[in-house]
């Protein structure tokens, strides 16, 4: 039997403050890089809240990892503190609409996060009607707050606009009397607004800001500002620049950069290393990609996976042949899909169903669809292109065979 001193590591040799590298961690201002202008504009839009007046409703756009959630949470937190100094009772609620995609789930999350112990109002996880959740939410707001900011992250993942309608009209519809509501919607789909109901659009999109991607220097700075997550001297010099260069090559995604840095440390940890060498960055990037992708396709049905596999096979073949075209027409994907079904001994779905499954993958940003008008002889058609690295997709599909 081993001595307990041998069994457990008593001191982490790599990390000293790993929370700094958790994606949900909200950094202090001096660790936020290159977003002064965005923070200023957002603060300006919600500024009336400091005086207990209605803040402007805002929509933030930009690709993943461009700091939208971070800036929205940071400005909201600052607003709550500054308002308190002015004698205004403010709060903010954060909703991840990818998780709380129904009206009931999102109103429950908002009500639960603004509720306090002093209220005699109970917000159960489930079991009451949507209308009751709203009633309790309005009561809490009127009883406790002068103003509340509601951040709806990944707002495009909401099943419908019902909650937006309710929030934007709560005041004029007489649901709340004393409390003002401001909504900060966040999306990485620039076309999201086109899908919105006209009335909701005019009220929710009073201000819009687009967050540009980071360049390699900014990613470098973002990671350097958190390098004290590691013990002193553990990070070898080339690690951060290499991780920044890799993350910038795609689209300047800070989430990816931070994930790579954390994984590089974890790989060093599990290899019993005392330092993190630059070489580990490549492996860390692959792990970051694979993990993100695994999360995206977790829970997808076998046929949805066959469809993806078909597109992956076409993409790999093309890459092997150095072919130029990277998009594939639905019928080509369907042919390969049918072949996969034959091999799997499964009956294939109709072309129309496969088209729907491709649409679902496009919705999750796994693939991109481009509509082409093929001229009078051909009619229009859609091409599908894999956005993920085909090797990563193949790996994950193999690893997660049910
Ligand atoms: N300017 C920045 N300075 C410091 N850290 C940053 C900055 N921008 C982003 N980050 C960090 O990168 C990670 C991803 O950022 P964030 O979640 O804000 O991106 P996002 O644009 O909301 O992406 P998504 O659309 O995927 O939600 C977070 O951990 C965040 O703290």
From TrEMBL:
Residues 54-215 form the AAA+ ATPase domain. Residues 313-397 form the Cdc6 C-terminal domain. It comes from the Archaea. ATP binds at residues 66-70, 214, 226. The keyword Nucleotide-binding applies. Keywords: ATP-binding, DNA replication, Nucleotide-binding. It holds the Pfam family WHD_Cdc6. Involved in regulation of DNA replication. Belongs to the CDC6/cdc18 family. This is ORC1-type DNA replication protein. It comes from Haloarcula saliterrae. The lineage of its organism: Archaea, Methanobacteriati, Methanobacteriota, Stenosarchaea group, Halobacteria.
